[in-house]
Write a structure and sequence with these properties.
- Strands 7, 17, 18, 19, 20, 23 and 24 form a 7-stranded antiparallel beta sheet that branches. Strands 10-2-1-14-25 form a 5-stranded parallel beta sheet, with helices on one face. The protein has a 4-stranded mixed beta sheet with strand order 5-6-8-9.
- It starts with 8 loop residues before the first strand and ends with a helix.
- The chain is of the alpha/beta class.
- It has 2 domains: 316 residues, FAD/NAD(P)-binding domain (3-Layer(bba) Sandwich), CATH 3.50.50.60; 184 residues, Cholesterol Oxidase, domain 2, CATH 3.30.410.
- Helix 1 packs parallel to helix 14.
- Helix content is 26%, strand content 21%.
Amino acid sequence: MGGRMQPDYIVVGAGSAGCAVACRLVEGGATVALLEAGPKDTSWRIHVPAALRPLLKDPKVNWNYQAEPVASTAGRPIALPRGMVLGGSSSINGMLYVRGNAADFNGWAQRGCTGWSYDDVLPLFRKSETYKQGGDEGYRGNSGPLQVEDYRTILPLTHKFVEAAQQAGFPLTPDYNGGQQEGVGYSQMTRRGRLRGSTAQTYLRAVRDNPKLQIITGAKAGPLLFEGRKCVGITYRQDGQDKELRPGREIVLCGGAYNSPQLLQISGIGPAAHLQSIGVEVRHDLPGVGSNLADHFGARLKHRVRGITMNQLSRFPHVVPEIAKFFLFGNGALTFGVTSAIVFCRSREGLASPDLQLSFTPATPVDMGQGDLEKEPGIQVTAIPVRAESRGTVMARSASPDDAPAISPNYLGDENDVNVLVSGVEITRRILAQPAMAAVSLGEYMPGPEVTSRDEIMQFTRETGGTIHHPVGTCKMGDDPAAVVDPRLKVHGFEGLRVADASIMPTLTTGNTNAPTIMIGEKCAAMILEDQAAG
């Protein structure tokens, strides 16, 4: 598309949802300008799955946000990485493909989000993926852009964990993205051959040569432009120059749970008192913008073990044959993501669906998630309350898009989250005590067998627990006073403006959020094209 041509649609943010929206709109015949604050995804570390750890701190491809320090997490400065590159966070994540539980989406529909029940969204999940390793055809897709695969290489310790979970009473689930999520199963990943399958390398790749698509990188979004109650454009800064772009039809915000509410707020849409306090003229008092922030927060347990883990395979000389396997056969340790097996289970009796995710990793990071791996062989299991009820906020600090928003996740602020997490630690210990794991374990060293009481477990978690990087909810969908968008993802009170990313989720999904965020992009594009056809 020529630089002077007015696009039908502007998509702001080339992340998990944004790439899906742009791709499907172009395939539907629309012209699209896709704005991305970061660069193209040229770093080799993005594409080699096991090379992701440095990306979690790299300012070239990462917003590098920080949570506001609070007492519930011992006043620690918790890092909140978000992708700032083509592909967004799908270019720097652990590549896990987890759709969530049917109850998640049925719950959204019951909250007034018409058209978002599991039966409504299942066709979009199927449309988005190609999964050729079995599974129920009624649930899995075989012609979508996303290449979803099981792990190509599985270390023996992962098999031991899966066996131990079954010994502890959890059934083997061959496909947690199929008819039943609950139980223990092997992880599935978004891939492109041996390489990472980000939305930039799948959705965008499918249309990157289409003249109807214009990709604008290095474009830091500024305030939106309005004529009355209609959104008519967006400002952005590129190469030190302030520019603006106006669509023929609509703007779709796909900045994610941190950036989308900030952009709305600096554009005058949000809680009036806060906007006034930072010097932004109030265009529309929409109190839900930036509220309802939810995220997954986990406690990580570590064991020293006998056997091969990524701790050894990532170092010389063990890494040399792994590099050869990667280039010659497309397998081996360099194809690993983060989690190789998962247990979805219930923290107590009487629940309708799982509220815990126990994620097994055949490695132990030094700093609980983002740094180098320890030298001695070890395994880690992270206990995660997946239906977290704690809610926080994202608030713009000033009228400038250059100032990072104040992010207050309020981890562990709800007592139920504390109860579920403690139960998760206890269940994890029960699994790791089973014969299959006991045969290879040299013992728990974090938090250590002396940490047993509820208070001790929570003190350990407050001091060492971490985000699982799944922020959602800050522009939530619904028809209640705190909702920001309606079920067709249109911002309440405005024409020509939608939001399509994890921020519109009313509640967290049961598991990792990349797959449902991509589904949201699919659904948004489908609704836009429906509305366009209807005139």
